[in-house]
Amino acid sequence: MSASLHRDPPGGRRAVAVWCIGVAVYFVAVIFRTSLGVAGLDAADRFHVNSSALATFSLLQLLVYAGMQVPVGLMVDRLGTKRVLTLGAVLFTVGQLGFALSPSYGMALAARALLGCGDAMTFISVLRLGTRWFPARRGPLMAQLAGLVGMAGNLVSTLVLAPVLHGVGWVPAFAGSAAAGLVVLVPLVLFLRDHPEGHEPAPVVRGGGGGGFVRRQIRESWAEPGTRLGLWVHFTTQFPAMVFLLLWGMPFLVEAQGLSRTTAGGLLTLVVASNMALGLVYGQIVGRRQSSRIPLALGTVGLTALLWGSVLAYPGDRAPMWLLVTLCLVLGGCGPASMIGFDFARPANPPERQGTASGITNMGGFLASMTTLLAVGILLDATGDNYRIAFSTVFVLEALGTARILRLRGRALTREATRTGVTLPAQPTGAAAPHAPHGAGGGGTSSPAGV
Q1: What's the distance, CA 378 to chain centroid?
Q2: Which CATH architecture has domain 8-195+214-420?
Q3: Contact partners, residue 16, CB within 8 Å, separation at least 6
Q4: Of 161, 361, 362, 393, whose CB neighbour count within 10 A is largest?
């Protein structure tokens, strides 16, 4: 095996250019994914559905997304980033166009499922680009930057698509947005490369046929405590903001809190802006101090639960604006905190399993989001739109995820220290973690010691 395979990728301008093509695809995928969040009330009127049926749009999309994570991870490991990203861009573009033109609820559901399938192929592919083109110490920051770009896509949905939708109507708004998929597909096909020359990943051994390869990849990835810890960190941290932005935030702020759509849209924008700002902060902290990962994740969970509880339990029918603003600022930390999950999965797995491990981790938050989306819709219908009861499901899933994190963290950190040769205290010590040799901590995908 060439010695170059053991060196960190060089980074540099070409790496940035290639990575930008990948994140542009992810940016468009997030616009399409979150477009329903600003159009939930319009969708209910267009397709004449209740809250449970409306939740099914996002539920089906997330079900497909979550179900595709492990297959997509296997595809990325086996086929490479470019092929998977290209297929994803085609699928989510067709799905967005189909959603625009669907004359019925059933056809619209099928379009959202197709969109979710394409969307599922983007983020893991972008993570793979970061690990193949940038040095290991840049891993946490590149993952957080990818998440930041995704939130920028969410911002476009809120600031651009929402007024366009109300100005020109359903079909022109959604069909016009589908053109963005074609725009990013061109540079993807022409210029994106899986890795720099001389830094090809080690050949993947595929003994036992295709089925044997798949089973081995999943079994060996899941056997690592770091992979399981990554899944539960992602599960516990991501879903409160995802549920709020993807579907239920706008109805909650308009119907339960009595805000105008403009004011509610501003609060959704605040969540996105907070996410983007905190993403840079979290990336720098984790990159410099690996021991901060657990405290950051659990601190975000605790603060989120505190603010949700304060809003839901506030005396009277409506919470004051300052409390809603504070909630939205805190929800902005959920996305960056969820990326910490990948910083546990990456050093636990060698380069040839990075896609599979990332896919397993990425399932966590979307399974939690899917469960909460459905539960909120059902409870709203059952209680006559009582948002206090419906949103209480957030605390149940946060408690479950926190218990799993506390149970797995010791084994995961011990195993990580064994692999990297670096001792990782469970709490911050004030000193940055030493840089482990490439290959020992998961193939140069994060700052060894961790989207």
Answers
A1: 24
A2: Up-down Bundle (1.20)
A3: none
A4: 361
Which residue is listed with tokens 């939740």?
55
Q: pTM of the prediction?
A: 0.76
Q: pLDDT tens across 130-189, in order?
A: 878 888 777 777 888 888 888 788 788 878 888 888 888 899 999 999 999 999 999 999
Is residue 373 within 8 A of residue 62, CB to CB? The reply is: yes
Q: At what angle do helices 139-156 and 13-34 cross, to 10 degrees?
A: 40
Gyration radius from the chain CA atoms: 21
Rounded to the nearest 10 degrees, the angle between the axes of helix 293-312 and helix 393-420 is 180
Is 417:423 a contact under the CB 8 Å cutoff? yes
pLDDT score for 84: 94
147-161, 247-261, 275-289, 382-396, range with the lowest pLDDT: 147-161
Asked if residue 231 lies in contact with residue 361, where contact means CB atoms within 8 angstroms, the answer is yes
Rounded CA-CA distance 60/345 in Å is 27
- CA dist 288 and 309 (Å) reads 33
pLDDT at 430 over 50: no
